[in-house]
Structure formats: C-alpha cells, structure tokens
Design brief:
With about 160 residues, the chain is mostly beta strands. The chain is built from no helices and twelve strands. The chain has a four-stranded antiparallel beta sheet with strand order 1-2-3-4, with no helix packed on it. A four-stranded antiparallel beta sheet has the order 5-6-7-8, with no helix packed on it.
C-alpha cells in the first residue's frame, strides 16, 4: 500500500479471509504532494492486498483536502460484488459503486455533472455529497444509507436519494 492512513476496514462475514481497506489521502511529514486515497482488497486474511481502483479518482495534490479522500466505504452482506465508496475531496466529491467486487467503479452520485452524468444532487454544502458514513442495508444491496455533515440520505435505486 502507498501509505497507512487507513480510514475503514471491512471484513466479509461469509468469507472470513476477505478484507477491504479504505485509505484516506495522506500528506508525507517531510512535505510534497498528498498521496491519493484508495481501496485495497485481501483474500488471504490480510497477508497481501491488491488495489481495486479502476474508475475511482486518483488525484494527488499539495493540499490533502483536494487529493482523493476515500472516507465512507461499505460492502454488501448479501452480494460481496457490490461495493460503495465516497470520495470527499473538496474539489470533486462523488459516490462510486462497483458491481464486480471492485474491479471497476462508476460514479453514481455527484454534485455537478462534469461528465454528463444523470445522478446529480442539489446540495446545501458547496462540495456536494461529502459522505463520511455509508451503510448498505444488510438485507437489500439496492438500499444504501449515507451521511455527511449536513444531511443523511437514503437511496433505494442506486441514488434516487431521499433526505431522511
């Protein structure tokens, strides 16, 4: 792993050797650019980890608040191929979903649709969906709860959001 700034650890209850680690951005003490956060997976109980980041934002920056900051992360208990992560970078908050165990990610919710995405929101806070807590319903992988500093949302169909 590029650094050890671990934000979340999620173990899969059915396969005890499968573990995911969510890294937040990290700024080296000696200076230089902040290193981007990322998601890593282990299938051998944490002995070895592989990055699973195709489609996630990989953005380093002098200011760690503008580097990719993986904060909220969860894995479906009913289908380990469904994962969600929230990137809380101040210049590009997005929520990403993977349906293939993290091999590929797609943006499912963002503040501004720079790429023409339809899943956008009007947010009270200028940075958008800066979710720091995220939980997939343990009985239904299509129901996701997420919370940030300003609001709590529930999605029942891959981010048709309802403020709770």
């Amino acid at each position: 792993m590029p650094h050890k700034n671990i934000e979340r650890v999620v173990a899969y209850p059915v396969k005890r050797d499968t573990v995911w680690i969510c890294l937040n951005a990290w700024k080296p003490e000696g200076g230089g650019e902040a290193i981007s956060g990322a998601i890593f997976r282990s299938d051998d109980g944490g002995k070895a980890f592989a990055e699973i980041a195709n489609g996630l934002q990989n953005r380093n920056n002098d200011n760690p608040l503008f580097a990719a900051n993986c904060k909220a992360f969860d894995v479906s208990r009913t289908n380990p191929d469904i994962l969600y992560v929230s990137d809380c970078a101040w210049n590009g908050c997005k929520i990403f979903r993977s349906t293939d165990g993290g091999k590929n990610w797609e943006s499912v919710l963002e503040r501004r649709a720079s790429d023409g995405a339809e899943k956008t929101i009007d947010a009270a806070y200028f940075i958008g969906p800066a979710m720091t807590v995220l939980c997939i319903d343990p009985t239904d992988a299509e129901v996701v709860y997420a919370a940030g500093a300003e609001y709590i949302v529930r999605s029942t169909d891959v981010w048709r959001c309802v403020v709770v």
